[in-house]
Amino acid sequence: MKEISVNRDPAELRQMLDFLGIAAFVIDVVSPDEYRLAAINARHEKHSGMKHDEVAGRSVDDVLSPAMAARVKVSYRRCVKSKTAIDYQETLDLPIGRTYWLTTLVPFFDEAGTVTRLLGTAYEISDQMHLELEARYQSTVMSAYLDESTDGILVVGSNNRIKTWNRRFLEIWNIPQAVMDSRDGDAALQAVVEQVRQPDSFVRRIRELYSSLGEEEQGVRIEMRDGRVLERYSRGLHGPDGSYWGRIWFYRDVTELQRMTERLVHLSQTDPLTGIPNRRVLMQQLEEEYGRARRYGHSLSVLMLDLDHFKQINDCHGHASGDLVLMEFVMVISPEIRASDCFARMGGEEFAILLPQSSLTSARRLAERLCRHVAGLSFTSQQGQFGVTVSIGVATLEDNDTSPEQLLSRADQGLYVAKASGRNRVHTSRDAARPEGAA
Ligand SMILES: Nc1nc2c(ncn2[C@@H]2O[C@H](COP(=O)(O)OP(=O)(O)OP(=O)(O)O)[C@@H](O)[C@H]2O)c(=O)[nH]1
Fold first, then answer.
1. Is the CB of 323 within 6 Å of ligand 1?
2. Residue identifier of the C-alpha nearest atom 7 of ligand 1
3. What's the pLDDT at 97?
4. What is the four-CA torsion angle of 267, 273, 274, 279, rounded to 10 degrees?
5. What are all long-range contacts of 267-272, with beta carbons under 8 Å and residues at least 24 apart?
6. Which residues form the PAS domain (predicted)?
């Protein structure tokens, strides 16, 4: 570097520095460990909060905190030693707060070629640094989220290039790392598609979402060939000016959740002792079948069944024997009915069978057969052998019925009559209404 000699006093230096459009300072090199501030300009004063008159001629050790003085002296020493201009970024904790600088130091020499002064120019870059730090903070939070998330996450840019993904995404989809490293959105889609049960509709929907740009998708279920169930969430990503940046995809493995939900639904619809549907299911199906029968003019019949003198069975043979009777009763009845019929436990020892597209005649025939089957059962307890019988009320949908409850209520009345006329029998809503004694 060309040798320059600057031997002006602080006031002159200050005047000279004020011509510069950026913050500037001059340092006198006293020894490798001692540096004195010769001058700072007005812009430096503005950004640093220091005053030229207060700092001129003073050692940096007096002006700056020990830690900061040690830091700046490292740069000064480097410049002195290298005898060339150096650039560096520095953080200064000044009375006005933490500031960030992009600094250039230029060495000045005496006639002997020794560096005696340093001219520093500095851009205050605190605003940019704060933005950068904020961006770094956001990206650290994002990385932590990506690492820890139980969702598989994929971000694809507007040019169909893969921007980012997390470990869980690879686990859920079992995609080779090389596919992701290729950053090719189509290659990743290909690897994914092979694993889903309905690849055509899957691809169609993915393409639709890509071309919609902004459309959001919430919790769409995807069935996998290996039996797993995934849930997909997706949304378009847009810049502040509304331009399309790409799309983010979230995949959640909900296999366990789905199993638990199905189990809960099953439990809420099933009688725990016998395993057949409960009252709620029958009422729901009755509602549906009533609508269908009305719409298509089909017949619809109902059987109400109640075991006879069941209390006595419990009392004489024990509750466990009573349970056994209920289970055996269900096992005997179940094979006798069609898949489209609904056999449900209404509560206690009362059951119902819904018979879509069955006339009163065929319903009665079935009821009589069931009556005979049940009467043929034989049980043994410590108290000895015993049997069981059932009474059945039968009703069919009439033209003037206005609700399914009317049908049920007539079957109930039939049951009441069957009980009152001696039990172990069938009574239909069209039989003589009054009990006539044992049949
Ligand atoms: N073992 C057992 N008994 C039950 C269960 N649910 C209800 N019961 C019993 O069933 C009996 C029903 O008695 P009642 O309503 O008097 O009827 P019943 O003795 O069958 O007499 P009728 O219906 O008039 O022939 C009661 O003793 C209940 O405790 C069950 O899940 N297991």
1. yes
2. 348
3. 81
4. -60
5. 271/344, 271/345
6. 9-83
> Is position 135 within any domain?
no
For residue 206, give the nearest of 223, 178, 186 by alpha carbon: 186
Sorted by sequence, the CB contacts under 8 Å of residue 330 that are 6+ apart come out as: 274, 275, 276, 343, 345, 351
Measured from the Cβ of residue 212, the count of other Cβ atoms closer than 10 Å reads 12
Q: Residue 308 CA: which ligand 1 atom is closest?
A: 25
Q: Is 310 in the pocket of ligand 1 (CB under 6 A)?
A: yes
pTM score, two decimals? 0.63
282 lies in the same domain as 231: no
Q: Total domain count for the chain?
A: 3
Identify the pLDDT of residue 433.
56
Which two three-digit tokens encode residue 439? Answer: 């049949």
Classify the complex by whether its ipTM is higher than 0.95, answering yes or no. Answer: yes
DSSP-based three-state secondary structure for 231: strand
- Residues 176, 117 share a domain: no
Pocket test for ligand 1, best of 311, 319, 330, 345 (most atoms within 8 A of CB): 311
At 150, is the pLDDT very low, low, confident or very high (cuts 50, 70, 90)?
A: very high
306-326 per-position pLDDT tens digit: 999 999 999 999 999 999 999
**Which tokens go with 190?**
């290909």
Q: CATH number, domain at 302?
A: 3.30.70.270
Full residue range of the structural domain in which residue 424 is found = 273-428
Q: What is the DSSP string of 22-68?
A: SEEEEEEEEETTEEEEEEE-HHHHHHH---HHHHTTEEHHHHS-HHH
What is the predicted pLDDT for the residue at 418?
97
Report if residue 232 sits inside a domain. yes
Q: Rounded mean pLDDT of 46-61?
A: 91
Please check whether residues 226 and 202 belong to one and the same domain.
yes
Distance CA 213, CA 237 (A): 8
Q: Are residues 377 and 344 in the same domain?
A: yes
